[in-house]
Write a structure and sequence with these properties.
The structure is a homodimer. Chain A is of the alpha/beta class. The first copy, chain A, has 16 helices and 19 strands. Helices cover 41% and strands 18% of the residues of chain A.
């Protein structure tokens, strides 16, 4: 029942008209959010889980019956609905671009219609978060990044998906323990200001933490004053060394990170603690990371939270799930600025001899474009997955491979150029034909 | 386990130090997101449910043990953890302002610390969405608004919470069937472009829908061309009238809504269909609604989706959960721009004789400010709710009452003035004292 009411009302109308033929829907994004020139595919695993388990419980049917607008025969039909169709998709971790279908669903019309809400919701969110995370990883130039976003993501589902999506794009860990346990990722975490405040003094707090976690102590130094806190950390680090342990890192969480990290690095180095790392967190996003890294701030690790976890500079994208073929007939939409390409599709990626991406070509599913790598893979057939889920580590690897083959100029954080994507001649001709026909039937009489 | 790892590592350090005394944490927002001058309280119900059910499963304990950083005695302690504390909160639906605690948790330190992640996540999200929705309702000046956001919210949890939060703030319905069934709200929905495209012509699609839902037909007219679509809708409306039914509304979903709504209104009126309403949806937020309504566009109903569902112009807020008292000792944080007020608090609201809000005063919990209405109410004691949940309709009513008592100048959509909030003399003195003391212990030695 995580669906929009209109999926159900449309389905009843289809049911009443006996429209049970096969439909293909295409999930794609029309335009780039600000400063984006690529998307990272993510969310497919949840889509496949959802489709594998699609059904309406007796309680759901009772609720719908009580609404008084659905017929008994339709509700009985709904009770038996399962997803029996096929799914072709760009695998998670791969890069894709505007207009390219991330997922194509081919199934009996009602089945394909009913699943719209969940599919857009998940792929939109997860691709958006993975893309934001990829930008952070790029800006960090090799420094580790931990996902600290759980407290400020838009809900619990987003927190879990942020952990997974950011790991795909190269984050090193997540603070969310549930996400770490579900997805088999490394969990990470240190202490909050409340920990420090609970003790009579900062020094007492640092000592207590070091006593509990002698092999993985990261001390938060800004509760009262970052420099004074660093001196307290130095004192505790010395006490730890006397016991044969090393302080792992200190964490900056407010103030001017560039200036503070240099002051703190000097204090640590002058105290013989050059092995103690500096972690910075608090309000960071890819733009801040880029500035800090380019300026040479001696920060070893970043904790990235709120702004990445809500994709703050681009919290939504224009992702749509559009009918492109019904009963063998290619269809499209002509609404202003919302035109869609008709027909089931394939995306071919061509590469330079260096291995770098050259351009993508959106073609019809039954076309073959020699020399192009087809991006859409069949991942579900007759309602069953065609193979086991890809291990998260492999998805992460797939992203790394794709990302390293994308020219750097598309990765710049501000106003990147557009990656070249074209439409095959055959698809272009079909689009013109379907457009003509739709206009002829639906519009010209009234002009 | 929906918690940050640091809640657990801090808890182990507290456990090891025998720090089991009572702590009070305060949940508040330091600064307004852009263009905001108030917050709508929402999320408390989920907090109370969560606290009522707090526990770590055997599987969770096993997972934590396998991490190899937690001691067996702490893990055994964790297995038995329940929430046994008390909660004071500003009830859902009420307005509140910066620095005012929306929720205060008082409990044994570890219990109060462990719940941080979930509490911030939910109250932050739900207050943010309710506030965004309140802005839309204000801009719509009495026109009905349906929540159409589910496809584009940041995850499934956010979709459900958007439905509820926007209903609190005055939306009329939600498109999300699951949300409607869980929260007992009116569901709403019509048709998507794919419905139209599935049929050989738009006219066929309209007829099929009308046949299935003769008493609640809303026709989407922009799939090919809005004006031509309206003429098709007129034709179907006439056919419905012949059968004794009325077309409910037509829906615009793209283009210039101001201009199109006037053209479409004229076509409908000239066709004797002045009872047919006009619904507009597609990219709308409070700023667009205000412009359309102020310009007098003849739109009767709005469907609001993406931008409201992600609070697009302010997708995050600076909400924090800070320790304010431990073992009878008031505490605070001094980090730059992140200073917190010490001590358990009460917020008193004073009103003008007209009933309009005059100002709020943040005071200590044990102060009495004659003439002020205390906003924080005890909603949980000894780990149990002090009463049944407030019915959603009553929360909605509470919002309406509060909102009508807030001067219009704080509701303007751009650059509103700040609502006056002051700090009691006693709290001000305590803040100075605690600050002095913290600086004395933690900072001055190293300056």
């Amino acid at each position: 029942m995580f669906t929009d009411l209109y999926e159900l009302t449309m389905s009843q109308a289809f049911f009443r008209q006996g429209m049970s033929a096969t439909a293909t829907f295409s999930l794609f994004t029309r335009t780039y959010p600000p400063n984006r020139a690529y998307f990272v595919s993510a969310g497919l695993e949840d889509v496949l889980d959802y489709l594998s388990n699609l059904n309406f419980s007796g309680r759901a049917i009772d609720y719908l019956r009580a609404m008084g607008i659905f017929s008994d025969d339709f509700l009985e039909f709904l009770r038996g609905v399962r997803f029996t169709g096929s799914v072709r998709a760009i695998p998670e971790g791969r890069l894709y671009f505007t207009d390219e279908p991330a997922v194509e669903i081919t199934a009996p019309l009602i089945e394909a219609q009913l699943v719209e809400t969940f599919i857009i919701n998940q792929v939109n969110l997860q691709s958006m978060l993975a893309t934001k995370a990829a930008r952070c990883v790029w800006a960090a130039q090799g420094r580790g990044i931990a996902d600290f976003a759980s407290r400020r993501t838009q809900g619990t589902d987003a927190a879990l998906k942020m952990a997974r999506a950011s790991y795909i794009a190269g984050f090193s860990s997540t603070s969310n323990v549930l996400a770490a346990s579900i997805y088999g990722m490394p969990p990470a975490g240190t202490m909050a200001h409340s920990f420090i405040s609970s003790f009579p003094s900062e020094l007492d707090a640092f000592r207590a933490y070091a006593a509990s976690f002698p092999t993985r102590t990261v001390l938060l130094v800004d509760t009262y004053d970052t420099i004074a806190g660093t001196w307290n950390a130095v004192q505790v680090a010395k006490e730890m060394e006397a016991d044969g342990h090393h302080l792992t890192a200190i964490r900056l969480d407010s103030g001017d990170f560039d200036q503070l990290s240099r002051q703190v690095r000097k204090i640590l180095d002058d105290s013989g603690l050059d092995h103690v790392k500096i972690l910075a967190s608090g309000g960071l996003d890819e733009y801040e990371l880029e500035t800090l890294v380019n300026n040479g701030a001696p920060i070893d690790l970043f904790g990235v939270g709120t702004k990445a976890g809500v994709s703050a500079d681009a919290p939504w994208s224009d992702m749509a799930y559009k009918l492109v073929c019904f009963d063998g007939r290619p269809v499209m939409k002509l609404s202003p600025d919302k035109v869609s390409l008709p027909g089931a599709k394939q995306v071919y990626r061509t590469k330079h001899s260096s291995g770098m991406f050259a351009k993508d070509i959106i073609a019809l599913d039954d076309e073959e474009l020699p020399g192009g790598l087809p991006l859409l893979e069949e991942v579900m057939k007759d309602g069953r997955r065609t193979g086991p889920p890809t291990a998260l580590e492999d998805v992460r690897m797939r992203f790394q491979e794709d990302f390293s083959d994308l020219d750097e100029r598309f990765k710049v954080l501000k106003n990147p150029p557009r990656f070249p994507v074209s439409v095959s001649g055959k698809l272009e001709r079909l689009t013109a034909e379907v457009r003509e026909k739709a206009l002829g039937v639906n519009v010209s009489d009234s002009d």
